[in-house]
Write a structure and sequence with these properties.
7-stranded mixed beta sheet; 13% strand; 382 residues; Aspartate Aminotransferase, domain 2; 12 strands; Aspartate Aminotransferase, domain 1; 3-stranded antiparallel beta sheet; alpha/beta; 2 domains
Length: 382
Amino acid sequence: MKRVYLDHNATTTLRPEAREVWVETLQELGGNPSSVHTSGRAARAVIDRARERVAGALGVSESGIFFTSSGTEANNLALLGTMRAAAPGAALTVLASDHASVLEPARHLEAEGCELRLASVDPEGLVNLDELAQTARGSALLSLAAANNETGALVPLREVREALGGDALPIHTDAAQALGRIPLDLTGWGVDLASLSAHKVGGPVGVGVLVRCTSLPLKPVLFGGGQEEGLRPGTENAPAIAAAACAIELAVAEQEEASARWRKQTAYLWGELQGALPHLQVVGPPMDSPLRLPNTLNVLAPGVDGRVIVTRLDLEGLEVSAGSACSSGSLEPSHVLAAMGFDEESARAAVRLSLGWETGDADLCRAVEILSKTFSLARKSG
Protein backbone atom coordinates (compact mmCIF):
# COMPACT_ATOMS: atom_id res chain seq x y z
CA MET A 1 0.00 0.00 0.00
CA LYS A 2 1.45 3.35 -1.06
CA ARG A 3 1.15 5.78 1.79
CA VAL A 4 0.26 9.43 1.21
CA TYR A 5 1.88 12.05 3.44
CA LEU A 6 -0.05 15.31 3.84
CA ASP A 7 1.42 16.58 7.11
CA HIS A 8 4.15 18.89 5.84
CA ASN A 9 3.32 21.63 8.34
CA ALA A 10 4.51 19.20 11.02
CA THR A 11 7.66 18.27 9.16
CA THR A 12 8.75 17.80 5.58
CA THR A 13 10.86 14.92 4.34
CA LEU A 14 14.53 15.65 3.80
CA ARG A 15 15.29 16.94 0.31
CA PRO A 16 17.85 14.87 -1.63
CA GLU A 17 19.99 17.96 -2.20
CA ALA A 18 20.10 18.70 1.54
CA ARG A 19 20.83 15.06 2.35
CA GLU A 20 23.76 15.07 -0.07
CA VAL A 21 25.24 18.21 1.50
CA TRP A 22 24.71 16.79 4.99
CA VAL A 23 26.41 13.46 4.27
CA GLU A 24 29.31 14.95 2.33
CA THR A 25 29.99 17.54 5.01
CA LEU A 26 29.70 14.95 7.76
CA GLN A 27 32.28 12.77 6.03
CA GLU A 28 34.69 15.64 5.44
CA LEU A 29 34.60 17.40 8.81
CA GLY A 30 36.00 16.26 12.11
CA GLY A 31 36.78 19.40 14.07
CA ASN A 32 34.98 21.60 16.56
CA PRO A 33 34.07 24.91 14.87
CA SER A 34 35.43 26.76 17.90
CA SER A 35 38.87 25.16 17.65
CA VAL A 36 41.70 27.15 16.04
CA HIS A 37 43.45 24.23 14.35
CA THR A 38 42.94 23.23 10.72
CA SER A 39 40.00 20.90 11.31
CA GLY A 40 38.28 23.45 13.50
CA ARG A 41 38.77 26.22 10.96
CA ALA A 42 37.31 23.98 8.24
CA ALA A 43 34.19 23.41 10.32
CA ARG A 44 33.94 27.14 11.05
CA ALA A 45 34.20 27.90 7.32
CA VAL A 46 31.24 25.61 6.64
CA ILE A 47 29.11 27.49 9.17
CA ASP A 48 30.24 30.85 7.84
CA ARG A 49 29.30 29.79 4.32
CA ALA A 50 25.91 28.54 5.53
CA ARG A 51 25.29 31.84 7.30
CA GLU A 52 26.13 33.68 4.11
CA ARG A 53 23.76 31.50 2.05
CA VAL A 54 20.85 31.90 4.46
CA ALA A 55 21.37 35.65 4.65
CA GLY A 56 21.49 35.89 0.87
CA ALA A 57 18.30 33.88 0.47
CA LEU A 58 16.48 36.08 2.99
CA GLY A 59 17.96 39.38 1.88
CA VAL A 60 19.39 40.24 5.29
CA SER A 61 22.83 40.82 6.80
CA GLU A 62 24.99 37.82 7.70
CA SER A 63 25.58 39.37 11.11
CA GLY A 64 21.88 38.95 11.85
CA ILE A 65 21.77 35.16 11.33
CA PHE A 66 21.94 33.03 14.49
CA PHE A 67 21.68 29.25 14.32
CA THR A 68 19.70 27.43 17.02
CA SER A 69 18.54 23.86 17.58
CA SER A 70 14.97 24.52 16.39
CA GLY A 71 12.30 27.06 15.59
CA THR A 72 11.08 26.58 19.14
CA GLU A 73 14.44 27.62 20.56
CA ALA A 74 14.53 30.60 18.17
CA ASN A 75 11.10 31.70 19.43
CA ASN A 76 12.19 31.32 23.05
CA LEU A 77 15.36 33.30 22.42
CA ALA A 78 13.39 36.04 20.67
CA LEU A 79 10.81 36.45 23.44
CA LEU A 80 12.88 35.74 26.53
CA GLY A 81 15.94 37.49 25.15
CA THR A 82 14.06 40.66 24.26
CA MET A 83 11.86 40.92 27.33
CA ARG A 84 14.65 40.20 29.80
CA ALA A 85 16.62 43.02 28.20
CA ALA A 86 13.63 45.37 28.57
CA ALA A 87 12.55 47.35 31.62
CA PRO A 88 10.97 45.33 34.48
CA GLY A 89 7.24 44.92 34.09
CA ALA A 90 7.30 45.75 30.38
CA ALA A 91 4.40 44.54 28.23
CA LEU A 92 4.56 41.68 25.74
CA THR A 93 1.81 41.24 23.13
CA VAL A 94 1.27 37.92 21.36
CA LEU A 95 -1.55 36.45 19.29
CA ALA A 96 -3.95 34.18 21.16
CA SER A 97 -3.65 31.77 18.20
CA ASP A 98 0.16 31.65 18.17
CA HIS A 99 2.20 28.46 18.45
CA ALA A 100 2.89 26.99 21.88
CA SER A 101 6.57 27.87 21.51
CA VAL A 102 5.48 31.52 21.65
CA LEU A 103 2.61 31.27 24.13
CA GLU A 104 4.45 29.21 26.73
CA PRO A 105 7.54 31.43 27.03
CA ALA A 106 5.13 34.38 27.09
CA ARG A 107 3.40 32.87 30.12
CA HIS A 108 6.76 32.26 31.79
CA LEU A 109 7.60 35.90 31.25
CA GLU A 110 4.27 36.87 32.79
CA ALA A 111 5.21 34.83 35.85
CA GLU A 112 8.48 36.81 35.98
CA GLY A 113 6.56 40.08 36.16
CA CYS A 114 6.00 41.06 32.53
CA GLU A 115 2.58 42.27 31.46
CA LEU A 116 1.15 39.75 28.98
CA ARG A 117 -1.40 40.93 26.43
CA LEU A 118 -3.22 38.48 24.15
CA ALA A 119 -4.31 39.90 20.81
CA SER A 120 -7.48 38.36 19.40
CA VAL A 121 -8.22 36.87 15.99
CA ASP A 122 -11.55 36.73 14.17
CA PRO A 123 -13.51 33.55 13.23
CA GLU A 124 -11.29 33.13 10.15
CA GLY A 125 -8.13 33.37 12.25
CA LEU A 126 -7.24 36.83 10.92
CA VAL A 127 -6.23 39.94 12.86
CA ASN A 128 -8.03 43.26 12.99
CA LEU A 129 -5.22 45.75 12.41
CA ASP A 130 -6.76 48.60 14.40
CA GLU A 131 -7.57 46.37 17.38
CA LEU A 132 -4.10 44.82 17.24
CA ALA A 133 -2.42 48.23 17.23
CA GLN A 134 -4.52 49.29 20.21
CA THR A 135 -3.69 46.13 22.16
CA ALA A 136 0.03 46.34 21.40
CA ARG A 137 0.48 50.05 22.08
CA GLY A 138 3.35 50.63 24.52
CA SER A 139 4.56 47.02 24.45
CA ALA A 140 8.24 46.16 24.55
CA LEU A 141 7.65 43.44 21.95
CA LEU A 142 4.86 42.33 19.61
CA SER A 143 5.10 38.69 18.47
CA LEU A 144 2.97 37.50 15.54
CA ALA A 145 3.17 34.28 13.52
CA ALA A 146 3.46 35.20 9.86
CA ALA A 147 1.42 32.08 9.08
CA ASN A 148 -0.61 29.96 11.45
CA ASN A 149 0.49 26.34 11.45
CA GLU A 150 -3.03 24.92 11.87
CA THR A 151 -5.28 27.11 9.71
CA GLY A 152 -2.82 28.71 7.30
CA ALA A 153 -4.09 32.19 8.22
CA LEU A 154 -1.56 34.88 7.34
CA VAL A 155 -0.73 38.08 9.21
CA PRO A 156 0.01 40.99 6.81
CA LEU A 157 3.08 42.17 8.68
CA ARG A 158 3.75 45.16 6.46
CA GLU A 159 0.22 46.41 7.18
CA VAL A 160 0.72 45.71 10.89
CA ARG A 161 3.78 47.95 10.92
CA GLU A 162 1.81 50.65 9.09
CA ALA A 163 -1.11 50.31 11.52
CA LEU A 164 1.26 50.97 14.41
CA GLY A 165 1.92 54.40 12.92
CA GLY A 166 4.68 56.20 14.76
CA ASP A 167 4.96 53.44 17.40
CA ALA A 168 8.35 51.88 16.76
CA LEU A 169 7.75 48.91 19.04
CA PRO A 170 9.82 45.85 18.07
CA ILE A 171 8.10 43.06 16.14
CA HIS A 172 9.01 39.38 16.19
CA THR A 173 7.47 36.94 13.74
CA ASP A 174 7.45 33.16 13.86
CA ALA A 175 7.92 32.62 10.12
CA ALA A 176 8.54 28.87 10.25
CA GLN A 177 5.39 28.04 8.28
CA ALA A 178 5.75 30.99 5.90
CA LEU A 179 9.24 30.16 4.63
CA GLY A 180 9.07 28.71 1.12
CA ARG A 181 5.30 29.16 0.93
CA ILE A 182 4.90 32.91 0.65
CA PRO A 183 7.50 35.55 -0.26
CA LEU A 184 9.50 36.56 2.81
CA ASP A 185 10.42 40.24 2.95
CA LEU A 186 11.63 40.67 6.50
CA THR A 187 13.10 44.11 5.88
CA GLY A 188 10.06 45.33 3.97
CA TRP A 189 7.75 43.97 6.63
CA GLY A 190 9.55 46.05 9.22
CA VAL A 191 10.17 43.19 11.64
CA ASP A 192 13.06 43.15 14.07
CA LEU A 193 13.25 39.39 14.67
CA ALA A 194 12.13 36.30 12.75
CA SER A 195 12.25 32.60 13.63
CA LEU A 196 12.69 29.82 11.06
CA SER A 197 12.95 26.04 11.13
CA ALA A 198 14.90 24.02 8.55
CA HIS A 199 12.82 20.85 8.72
CA LYS A 200 9.70 22.69 7.53
CA VAL A 201 11.33 23.15 4.10
CA GLY A 202 13.12 19.85 3.52
CA GLY A 203 16.11 20.49 5.76
CA PRO A 204 17.23 18.38 8.72
CA VAL A 205 15.52 18.33 12.08
CA GLY A 206 17.60 20.08 14.72
CA VAL A 207 18.43 23.38 13.00
CA GLY A 208 16.55 26.62 13.58
CA VAL A 209 17.40 30.20 12.70
CA LEU A 210 16.79 33.44 14.54
CA VAL A 211 17.12 36.42 12.22
CA ARG A 212 17.84 39.78 13.84
CA CYS A 213 17.09 42.52 11.33
CA THR A 214 17.85 45.46 13.64
CA SER A 215 20.06 46.21 16.63
CA LEU A 216 17.35 45.16 19.09
CA PRO A 217 19.04 44.17 22.39
CA LEU A 218 18.86 40.48 23.25
CA LYS A 219 19.96 38.56 26.31
CA PRO A 220 21.01 34.91 25.97
CA VAL A 221 18.75 32.22 27.36
CA LEU A 222 21.46 29.54 27.55
CA PHE A 223 24.93 29.92 29.06
CA GLY A 224 28.25 28.16 28.81
CA GLY A 225 29.97 29.27 25.61
CA GLY A 226 30.55 32.13 23.21
CA GLN A 227 29.10 30.60 20.04
CA GLU A 228 26.71 32.61 17.86
CA GLU A 229 28.07 35.85 19.34
CA GLY A 230 27.27 34.57 22.82
CA LEU A 231 23.54 34.40 22.11
CA ARG A 232 23.37 30.65 21.58
CA PRO A 233 26.19 28.75 23.32
CA GLY A 234 26.89 25.15 22.39
CA THR A 235 28.95 23.44 19.72
CA GLU A 236 27.32 24.01 16.33
CA ASN A 237 26.29 21.04 14.18
CA ALA A 238 28.13 22.16 11.06
CA PRO A 239 26.94 19.38 8.69
CA ALA A 240 23.29 19.88 9.65
CA ILE A 241 23.62 23.65 9.39
CA ALA A 242 25.09 23.30 5.89
CA ALA A 243 22.17 21.06 4.87
CA ALA A 244 19.73 23.53 6.39
CA ALA A 245 21.21 26.38 4.36
CA CYS A 246 20.84 24.30 1.20
CA ALA A 247 17.16 23.58 1.94
CA ILE A 248 16.38 27.20 2.78
CA GLU A 249 18.02 28.42 -0.43
CA LEU A 250 16.01 25.95 -2.49
CA ALA A 251 12.76 26.78 -0.70
CA VAL A 252 13.16 30.49 -1.39
CA ALA A 253 14.23 29.95 -5.00
CA GLU A 254 11.30 27.63 -5.73
CA GLN A 255 8.67 29.42 -3.66
CA GLU A 256 6.73 31.11 -6.46
CA GLU A 257 6.41 27.97 -8.56
CA ALA A 258 5.65 25.76 -5.56
CA SER A 259 2.99 28.12 -4.21
CA ALA A 260 1.19 28.21 -7.56
CA ARG A 261 1.17 24.41 -7.65
CA TRP A 262 -0.08 24.11 -4.07
CA ARG A 263 -2.92 26.58 -4.67
CA LYS A 264 -4.18 24.45 -7.53
CA GLN A 265 -3.76 21.27 -5.54
CA THR A 266 -5.56 22.52 -2.42
CA ALA A 267 -8.36 23.94 -4.58
CA TYR A 268 -8.73 20.54 -6.23
CA LEU A 269 -8.63 18.77 -2.89
CA TRP A 270 -11.31 20.99 -1.38
CA GLY A 271 -13.48 20.87 -4.49
CA GLU A 272 -13.48 17.07 -4.51
CA LEU A 273 -14.10 16.80 -0.78
CA GLN A 274 -16.88 19.38 -0.85
CA GLY A 275 -18.60 17.50 -3.67
CA ALA A 276 -18.39 14.16 -1.85
CA LEU A 277 -18.94 15.48 1.67
CA PRO A 278 -21.08 18.66 1.62
CA HIS A 279 -21.16 18.82 5.42
CA LEU A 280 -17.42 19.59 5.63
CA GLN A 281 -16.38 23.14 6.50
CA VAL A 282 -13.17 25.02 5.75
CA VAL A 283 -11.44 26.34 8.85
CA GLY A 284 -9.57 29.61 8.43
CA PRO A 285 -9.66 32.16 5.61
CA PRO A 286 -11.75 31.33 2.51
CA MET A 287 -10.03 29.24 -0.15
CA ASP A 288 -9.62 32.22 -2.48
CA SER A 289 -8.31 34.55 0.21
CA PRO A 290 -4.82 36.01 -0.33
CA LEU A 291 -4.39 35.73 3.46
CA ARG A 292 -4.02 31.96 3.59
CA LEU A 293 -1.08 29.63 3.04
CA PRO A 294 -1.25 27.98 -0.36
CA ASN A 295 -0.34 24.52 0.96
CA THR A 296 -2.71 24.25 3.93
CA LEU A 297 -6.30 23.00 4.12
CA ASN A 298 -8.00 22.62 7.50
CA VAL A 299 -11.42 20.95 7.36
CA LEU A 300 -13.99 20.43 10.07
CA ALA A 301 -16.44 17.54 10.15
CA PRO A 302 -19.22 18.34 12.67
CA GLY A 303 -19.75 15.62 15.23
CA VAL A 304 -16.50 13.80 14.48
CA ASP A 305 -13.41 13.65 16.69
CA GLY A 306 -10.43 14.75 14.61
CA ARG A 307 -8.01 12.55 16.56
CA VAL A 308 -10.12 9.46 15.81
CA ILE A 309 -10.30 10.39 12.15
CA VAL A 310 -6.52 10.85 11.98
CA THR A 311 -6.03 7.31 13.33
CA ARG A 312 -8.52 5.84 10.87
CA LEU A 313 -6.94 7.72 7.97
CA ASP A 314 -3.52 6.44 9.02
CA LEU A 315 -4.79 2.86 8.91
CA GLU A 316 -5.96 3.51 5.36
CA GLY A 317 -2.58 4.92 4.34
CA LEU A 318 -3.10 8.68 4.64
CA GLU A 319 -1.00 10.68 7.11
CA VAL A 320 -2.51 13.98 8.28
CA SER A 321 -2.92 15.67 11.66
CA ALA A 322 -5.55 17.04 14.00
CA GLY A 323 -3.59 20.26 14.57
CA SER A 324 -0.10 21.18 15.66
CA ALA A 325 2.26 18.20 15.87
CA CYS A 326 3.56 19.69 19.12
CA SER A 327 0.16 19.28 20.80
CA SER A 328 -1.78 16.74 18.72
CA GLY A 329 -1.43 14.16 21.49
CA SER A 330 -3.05 16.51 23.97
CA LEU A 331 -6.53 15.82 25.31
CA GLU A 332 -7.29 19.52 25.05
CA PRO A 333 -9.03 20.94 21.97
CA SER A 334 -7.03 23.16 19.63
CA HIS A 335 -6.26 26.48 21.29
CA VAL A 336 -6.07 28.01 17.81
CA LEU A 337 -9.68 27.13 17.01
CA ALA A 338 -10.74 28.14 20.51
CA ALA A 339 -9.17 31.57 19.90
CA MET A 340 -11.22 31.77 16.69
CA GLY A 341 -14.43 31.25 18.66
CA PHE A 342 -15.09 27.55 18.04
CA ASP A 343 -16.69 25.64 20.90
CA GLU A 344 -14.86 22.66 22.40
CA GLU A 345 -16.69 20.01 20.36
CA SER A 346 -16.05 21.81 17.09
CA ALA A 347 -12.43 22.51 17.98
CA ARG A 348 -11.90 18.75 18.31
CA ALA A 349 -13.42 18.02 14.89
CA ALA A 350 -10.79 19.64 12.66
CA VAL A 351 -8.28 17.82 10.46
CA ARG A 352 -5.29 19.57 8.85
CA LEU A 353 -3.99 18.62 5.43
CA SER A 354 -0.69 20.26 4.43
CA LEU A 355 1.22 19.78 1.18
CA GLY A 356 4.96 19.83 0.57
CA TRP A 357 7.68 19.79 -2.06
CA GLU A 358 7.09 16.14 -2.96
CA THR A 359 3.26 16.14 -3.05
CA GLY A 360 2.04 14.96 -6.45
CA ASP A 361 -1.39 15.01 -8.09
CA ALA A 362 -1.65 11.23 -7.75
CA ASP A 363 -1.22 11.63 -3.99
CA LEU A 364 -4.21 13.97 -3.89
CA CYS A 365 -6.43 11.61 -5.89
CA ARG A 366 -5.63 8.83 -3.44
CA ALA A 367 -6.15 11.21 -0.49
CA VAL A 368 -9.62 12.17 -1.74
CA GLU A 369 -10.61 8.49 -1.95
CA ILE A 370 -9.43 7.78 1.59
CA LEU A 371 -10.88 10.96 3.07
CA SER A 372 -14.29 10.51 1.43
CA LYS A 373 -14.54 6.91 2.59
CA THR A 374 -13.32 7.57 6.13
CA PHE A 375 -15.39 10.71 6.78
CA SER A 376 -18.51 9.01 5.43
CA LEU A 377 -18.06 5.97 7.66
CA ALA A 378 -17.31 8.16 10.68
CA ARG A 379 -20.46 10.17 10.14
CA LYS A 380 -22.62 7.05 9.81
CA SER A 381 -21.13 5.47 12.92
CA GLY A 382 -21.48 8.77 14.82
